[in-house]
Amino acid sequence: MNIGITTFNDAFWAYLIIPVLIILSVYFTVRSVGVQFRMIPEMIRSMGGKTGLAEDGRKPISAFQAFTVSAGARVGTGNIAGVATAIALGGPGAVFWMWVMALMVGAASFIESTLAQLYKVRDKEGFHGGPAYYMEYGLKSRWMGVLFAVIITVTFGIVFTSVQSNTISAAISNSVSTVSGGEGSPWTPYVVGAVLAVFTAVIIFGGARRIAHASTMLVPFMAGIYILLGMAVVALNVDQIPAVMVEIVTHAFGIQEIAAGGIGTAIVQGMRRGMFSNEAGLGSAPNAAASAAVSHPVKQGLVQTLGVYFDTLVVCSTTAFIILVSNPTYTEEAGPTLTQNALETNLGPWALHVLTLVILLLAFTSVLGNTFYGESNIGYLTKKPAAVTGFRVLVVLVTFLGAIGSGGLVWSLADTTMGVMALVNLAALALLAPIACRLLTDYVKQRKEGRDPEFTKDSMPDLTGVQCWEQEDLDRLKGNVAKV
């Protein structure tokens, strides 16, 4: 079954999803006049700003917290194992196409997150929304929103949570075996699963704010550790960097032969793994983007575009350089092993255990981000509080079961559901992109006038389906309204 699903996924992604994504990314780039390139300073600037108070009198989720929630879901084991697998199968050239993918899909990320902000809805803690909401309110297509909400809840909330838990368990078991010199205790996965389940429950039952706060603390810390490891490896091999860059470029264009047999494999592996990693166009990050309290929808669109660059150009590149400066043998080593062996070779055996810590934090924040996405879409499907509670219980259970199970078939199934999710979301983006670009024009105009851009639904009264963006929302954001 796994072989059959994998074969289907290879064709599904290579001949349908990636071409559609490329075509639409070019369209979004042209339509937005290269927003992902010309607005980088604004991306950084938009990370700040006031949040005011939510309806319950507490602070809502800020632009930076929404960034860390999405980064927590984006920056996962795919940045270590996924990049390594792309290099193992597609050679060094896969890294080049991963970079190209990040630059191209930045426009798609901007469009989807800006739309999520525009069509978000209000709750007591602040706001929530995502693709399901802009499908219903922007396209007037409830069935499309329901379809997307179900797919993303299953894929991210359940399947990927199990995979991340399994990865944590495997990494810790490997470290324990290395220290003990044997195979390790068969009870290790059960202990790891129980501890993970407890910590997950403590955080997710605290609601969206607690998930955001945990991500704000963990994401910069885990990314910092991993990037420092990468910098150490690069510093020890600085004389090899020019040769590595030449190797990446020459392999990318088929000037040299690569392990899996040509330029086509390098392109497919690089773009596919790149999309898996940064999630631009998939419709996952907009669920976090919609939760931010900002004065203009474009602000969070810009912030999430920066998230794509952070994930791929920084974190994924760290993995790539760790591997490539170590002169790996692509045909003999499995993908994740490339990273482990490279760190051990350059920094010593202790690096294996540090990498275990990094994987633990990466995967755990992914569980939190995935839960956030699931809750947002459960809230779209039903307003019953019991449904969210039931979902949280299921996440805790899956976290435990994932630690003691096998993730091979689950990953393959997730590839398929993610592909379907991407197609549904991209179809909506293609139809709604003009609205996002119109908001961008309004934002740029206000910035040229020297103002901090603001938006209310009265600014564009012809837009239908907008649920928030009253003057009252701006007043609350500025702190002029304490509680309503």
Gist?
With 484 residues, this protein is an all-alpha fold. The chain has helices at residues 2-31, 35-38, 40-45, 63-74, 81-90, 93-118, 131-137, 142-180, 188-204, 208-236, 241-252, 263-278, 285-289, 297-324, 335-347, 350-381, 385-404, 408-448, 471-477; strands spanning 121-123, 126-128.
Number of strands: 2
Strand order of the largest sheet: 1-2
The CATH C-level name is Mainly Alpha
- What's the SSE pattern? HHHHHHEEHHHHHHHHHHHHH
CATH superfamily: Amino acid/polyamine transporter I
What is the oligomer described by this structure?
Answer: single chain
- Mass-distribution shape: globular
Number of domains: 1
Helix content: over 70%
| End-to-end separation | 55 Å
| Average of per-residue pLDDT values | 80
The helix/strand class is: mainly alpha
Counting DSSP H or I runs of 4 or more residues, the number of helices is 19
Radius of gyration: 22 Å
Structure description:
With 484 residues, the protein is an all-alpha fold. It has a single domain, classed as Amino acid/polyamine transporter I (Up-down Bundle), CATH 1.20.1740. 73% of the residues lie in helices and 1% in strands. It has helices at 2-31, 35-38, 40-45, 63-74, 81-90, 93-118, 131-137, 142-180, 188-204, 208-236, 241-252, 263-278, 285-289, 297-324, 335-347, 350-381, 385-404, 408-448, 471-477, and strands at residues 121-123, 126-128. It has a two-stranded antiparallel sheet with strand order 1-2. 54% of the residues are buried. Residues 257-261 have low confidence and may be disordered.
